[in-house]
Specification:
Low-confidence stretches: 1-16
Largest sheet: 12 strands, mixed
Distance between the termini: 51 Å
CATH superfamily of the largest domain: P-loop containing nucleotide triphosphate hydrolases
Radius of gyration: 26 Å
CATH class of the largest domain: Alpha Beta
Structural class: alpha/beta
Number of strands: 19
CATH architecture of the largest domain: 3-Layer(aba) Sandwich
Number of domains: 3
Mean pLDDT: 90
């Protein structure tokens, strides 16, 4: 068991050299055992260079350190061996009986990035100052869980990742944005360095917002909504409300897309009691007063089908609580209906606890949660990839979290949430998870398939403007 009270922490600053008494050995070329002195600067998560007497150079990463008499013992993982061509071979490592240990330099860590295809620079490694932290773009074909408590820098860091994906890949992104945090994603900061900034300026970024003001509007086409979505909007049960539900099933004969009032009038005038009951239900719920219908404008689904580089769905600002739910559900249902086309898209759901909580059981919440669960379970093979961001891991349905192969964890002080994350994400080292309560703002643990090895990172600066900046306290 790791002694987290006495083992080195990420707050330490490693020296360039390690004591001569620090040695490692490996019996299988995968895991190594470490013996180091009391003054050793090594810490969990740190990259180390292992040199055996034959001249071979291995790259390893410290996993666990435990206090022992006169120093520390520990274990770590061998990430590869430098081959004759100066490349890092992740599969070529073999056993060794004794190797000297030193902190890995930037060049050796860069060999790991090159070998793994990590090209998205999201910050700097905490355990290796001056060494960039990079993610693997091709591994966003797995679902990702992104979490951190309020004030941890979670949304800012998520913006950094989205910028990197936009600048360096052709992966279309749809962002479900409840707090208008990403509505300025198309605005490059004046102080941004050229290169990536120029790449972002050339991206097609569409921002769809509620209301009737300037810009593109966030709309749905009622005629195109699947029957279960229409029924959820009207709170209809297929058995309990079977007559009205059946009327909705045949509603196409009554629909007048550009005149909701005409639809209501025709239902009222119908001699069918079920039509009249449906008219009363529509009027009582005020559904036709919602400002979400496309009419002569393009619906969100139609814009997304054209696959701009990014589509930001500003879900805040609606007057009725059900409007953002219908809008989000229409997009997810449409993508799922066309899944056999296998057109890749990354679905970023910020504040995901609002859309897929196990505790919200209204008809729309239930339909939305079930659709996200289905995408989590089966969407990966069709190119529908989720990135769920939340400050409340316990408020996300476990059937969704369990499907995530990538983890980004920022400051999290709740022992219950950390225990749940440790149980769900076995690939995240316990010694690094345990440091989450001590993270400063903007620090994160990345683990899983999208990172060459589990890493503690300080997130870099944004290239584009942040939408949801905190309101400052007025000072004298």
């Amino acid at each position: 068991m790791t002694d987290t009270n006495t083992a080195p922490t990420a707050a330490a600053t490693p020296d360039a050299a390690v004591a001569a008494s620090d040695t490692a050995s490996s019996v299988d070329g995968r895991e190594f055992r470490l013996q180091c002195g009391q003054d050793s600067p090594l810490l969990p998560g740190q990259y180390v260079e292992l040199d055996d007497p034959s001249g071979r150079v291995f790259l390893g990463q410290v996993d666990v350190l435990t206090a022992s008499d006169g120093g520390f013992t520990g274990t770590g993982w061998i990430l590869g061996v430098v081959d004759a061509g100066g490349r890092l071979d992740p599969r070529g490592a073999t056993a060794f009986t004794r190797a000297s240990v030193s902190t890995a330099g930037p060049d050796l860590v860069e060999l790991l990035h090159e070998a793994s295809g990590a090209t998205l620079t999201v910050g700097a490694l905490l355990a290796s100052p001056g060494v960039p932290a990079r993610l693997l773009p091709h591994r966003f074909n797995r679902h990702t869980f992104w979490c951190g408590q309020s004030g941890s820098g979670k949304t800012y860091a998520l913006g950094v990742l989205i910028e990197q994906l936009l600048a360096h890949t052709e992966l279309p992104i749809v962002i479900f944005d409840p707090n208008a945090d990403f509505v300025r994603l198309g605005e490059v900061r004046a102080d941004a360095a050229p290169g990536e900034a120029d790449a972002l300026r050339n991206r097609d970024i569409r921002v769809l917002r509620p209301g009737s003001g300037p810009g593109e509007h966030l709309r749905v086409r009622f005629r195109s909504l699947p029957l279960p979505v229409k029924a959820a909007m009207l709170r209809l049960d297929p058995l309990r409300d079977r007559a009205e539900y059946n009327s909705v099933l045949h509603l196409n004969a009554f629909e007048a897309e550009n005149d909701p009032g005409a639809l209501l009038a025709r239902l009222r005038e119908s001699p069918d009691p079920a039509h009249q009951a449906l008219a009363l239900r529509i009027e009582n719920l005020g559904v036709l007063d919602w400002n979400i219908y496309a009419f002569d404008e393009p619906a969100a689904t139609e814009i997304i089908d054209a696959r701009p580089h990014a589509t930001v769905l500003d879900l805040g600002g609606f007057e009725h609580a059900d409007e953002p739910l219908v809008t989000a559900l229409s997009v997810l249902e449409n993508l799922w209906a066309h899944r056999e086309e296998r057109r890749p898209v990354l679905l970023v759901i910020d504040e995901a606890h609002n859309l897929c909580s196990p505790d919200q059981n209204g008809p729309l919440h239930t339909a939305l949660r079930e659709q996200i669960i289905q995408i989590a379970a089966e969407g990966r093979k069709f190119g529908l990839w989720l990135l769920l961001s939340t400050q409340r891991p316990s408020k996300i349905h476990p059937g969704i979290i369990s499907q995530c192969d990538n983890l980004a964890l920022m400051k999290m002080s709740s022992p219950a949430d950390l225990a749940e994350l440790a149980a769900l994400f076995g690939y995240a080292p316990a010694a690094l998870l345990a440091q989450s309560p001590r993270f400063r703002q903007g620090e994160a643990l990345f683990a899983g398939g999208f990172v060459p090895a589990p890493s503690l990172v300080r997130v870099r600066d944004r290239i584009t403007e942040e939408g949801g900046i905190d309101v400052k306290v007025p000072l004298r």
